[in-house]
Each structure stands twice: as C-alpha cells, then as structure tokens.
Amino acid sequence: MPDRLFPTLASGPDKEALRFGDTSLTYADVAAIAGTLARDLPAGRVAVWATPSVHTSVAVIAALLAGVPAIPLNPKIGERELAHILTDSEPVLVLAEPGADLPTGLDGLPRRDIVLEGAPVALPAEPDAETPALIVYTSGTTGPPKGVVLPRRAIATTLDALEDAWAWTADDVLVHGLPLFHVHGLILGILGPLRRGGSVRHLGRFSTEGVARELATGATMMFGVPTMYHRIAGEVGEDPSLAKALSSARLLVSGSAALPVHDHQRITAATGRRVIERYGMTETLMNTSIRADGEHVPGTVGVPLRGVDLRLVDEAGEPVEEVETVGEIQVRGPNLFTEYLNRPDATEAAFDDGWFRTGDMATRDAAGYVKIVGRKATDLIKSGGYKIGAGEIENALMEHPGVAEVAVTGEPDDDLGERIVAWVVPEGERPAESELADHVSRLLSPHKRPRVVRYLEALPRNDMGKVMKRALG
C-alpha cells in the first residue's frame, strides 16, 4: 500500500490543523469532514471554487483522499477562461463554499456546498502515487491556459524536499494570505503543513497587522510573494511590533517572483532575519531553495532541492558550464508534472530528452547558487551584442530612493537590436530619466542602463503579484 499523503489525518489527533479567522479545525475534524465528503464524491474530475477559505481546503483534501483529480478555479476568473477550462477538463461537479456567488458559466454543472460537519469515518485506501491529484491551469500568457496534471508523487516529493531544505517539522505553524487556486498557496501553504503534521493559519486577506499578530502568538513560518514583502519592507522600519514579530519567525519564505535585493536589505536591517527565496513552477513544483542551514545569498533562489537535477543550456541546447553565464533552466526529477491535459503536442515540446524546458533564464555561481534573470520570452534582452537579464537592472533601480516599483523590458531598436526600457512607479517626486540611467551605469555597467524610462502609477500584476510584462508597451 502506498504511503499516505497525509499520515496525521489517519490518526486524527485533536491538534489544530487549519485556522481561517475564527474557524479552526483539528486533524480529527478534517479527517471526519473530508473523509465523509470523499466517500460521496463521484468518479471523474471535480472543480473547486477556490476562495481563500477553510471550505476550499477541505474540498481539495477530500478529493485527494478519494483519488479524484481536483481543478482549483480562481474566483476572479473571466468568462472566456472559465469556459475554456470547463470544456478542456470536463468536471462532473463543482465544490464551493456555502453562499459563494458562482458565475453563470458554472450553471450547467452540479454544485455541492462544503458543510463543515462529519462523523469519524475510515479513510479510503491511499491511491497509487501516479494518480492525478490536481489539474492546475497555467496563466495562459502565450495562448489558452494549459491544464497541468500533477500526480500525487510530485506533491509528496516536493513537500518532502522542502522538509529537508527548511527543517520543516510538525512543530511549525505557518501563516500566509496567499490565494488557494495556485501551487504556492494551496500545495505549499495548505497541503505542506498537513503533510508535516503541523498547522496553518490563513489570513484570508494579507495584511502586515495579521502577519504580526500570528507571528507574535505562536506562528513560526511565513510564506509570501514579493508584493507582500515589499509592503513589509516599507513598514517594518517604523513599526516596532511588526519588526519584533518578524524577528521571532523561524523562517520567512518568498516565492512566485524575484524579491528585490533592496527589500531583502530593509527587512534584515529591521529584524535581523533573512528572507529565503525558492524557485518553482506549476509544472515542476519546487526546484531550488536557499536552505535553512545554508548560506543566505540575497538575489538568488538557492541550490537544487533533493531529488532535482538542474542544468543551464544555451540557445543551441548545449549545457552551460561557465559560472555567471546566462542559460535556460532545465530540470528533471520526480517533482515534475505528468502531462498537459489533452495536449500531447505541448507536452512533447516541453521536454528535451527528459529535461523540462522551463523558459526561465538564470546564471549559476561557483557554489551552485542559481540567480534567475527573467523569462526567456520577456526578460532576456539582447542589446548591443550583449545578453542582459532584466532582473539585475530591476534590482539596481529598486536601490534608487525615487523608485517604488519597476519593470524592465526590451523593445526593438535599429542600432542596438533591442533597447532597455524601464517602467517606473515613482516614490514621491519623479526622478529624472538621466539620473536613473546614471544610477544603473554606476552599479552595473553602461550597456545595462535604460535607454528609455516610462513612468506609471502602478504596474500591471496578476493575482499572484507577478508583473504582466506583456501588458506593458
């Protein structure tokens, strides 16, 4: 019989497992509620209206117990994208929080509200490790979203690798306010603590006050995205209670996009704690991380996790051996997805002789630490014969006091091939374009300075806080 994905559920202790606001469930509660629901789920895929709630958590756990693939749906999803996902995945049921207002696109699908009641039941036998667990749809930046089929094996592997990297134990209490339709908030932020036998306190909606409260009352870890840590960095120097709470945390983890070095520095200066960055994708789950017992190198995403093979390749597909040389990240290991649902062509194109092509560009230093420089399609700028990563320019610009937020892109240039464009949200008075160009030239090199600066009131971001660079221009 395969090892259980959630061993602690089988024993059903009275220890707190999930807390959302005033609602708290023990492992015994979760086992009873999710176990009861699991018995009644039909064969076939089920959609989950993934509000940031305990109901979403229980629904996904029930599907996992039953061996039924769950499809988390973003509550802010648009009509066209929803229609595509439903047609592509053909769920037989939608599970939802009671009272949730579902869009008309779901009218044709049977609905079941998640009731937080259930009597103790024997949990179903553990499904095979290759059984599809979740189908998570990508953001669809290059076409309609693709359904990433994640087997139970990938979830268990990645969470156990993080146990090793972060010394994650049953004693840890995690706080976060991440959405539950994505890998970060759902797999790492909900399923991770449950696999370890620990606890999670979800804020519902992120706030620095909520983080401070939970870390001051027993939480040991925080997961967040750069927009959250940017808010923390802006407040922590002037808020002693926030600084004290963060300083008590065992682990602060940032992911889903690069955290600017300047924000690292401000948080560390105020708290004495360093934020750990890790790197993953929907298709691969987690690939690398700064280790809890390793050297902290701000601006990097650490070293490959246990069980993950990682290499960089050049444009010809040849391995890059030189340190500090840009290449595309390719990975292989048991953390990878099975396939893109109904897309054998896309699945085949995504692999190079067993290695998954991430599309992310990075460098590697002599100690093996990986630094992401951006996406191959949008963040690698070829200017004046140089290959330049947008990320290092963004980090440099964030060190300027007149820059609150920034995104760097390339655009066609007759002379340079591409010219570097900085999209800047000013901090107070707008800095001069020449001042920003000189700032980058001084910190990096002249060929990396922005040739054009465009000022914005806000950068376009998706629900995970990632800047949507394709919307710039």
From TrEMBL:
UniProt cross-references to InterPro entries, sorted A to Z: AMP-bd_C, AMP-bd_C_sf, AMP-binding_CS, AMP-dep_synth/lig_dom, ANL_N_sf
Domain AMP-binding enzyme C-terminal: 392-466
Domain AMP-dependent synthetase/ligase: from-to ranges: 11-341
UniProt superkingdom: Bacteria
GO biological process: fatty acid metabolic process
Residues of the signal peptide: none
GO molecular function: medium-chain fatty acid-CoA ligase activity
Gene3D superfamilies to which the protein is assigned, alphabetical: 3.30.300.30, N-terminal domain of ligase-like
Pfam annotation, one family: AMP-binding_C
Family statement: Belongs to the ATP-dependent AMP-binding enzyme family.
PANTHER family, alphabetized: ACYL-COA SYNTHETASE (PTHR43201), ACYL-COA SYNTHETASE FAMILY MEMBER 3 (PTHR43201:SF8)
Entry protein name: Acyl-CoA synthetase
Source organism (scientific name): Amycolatopsis japonica
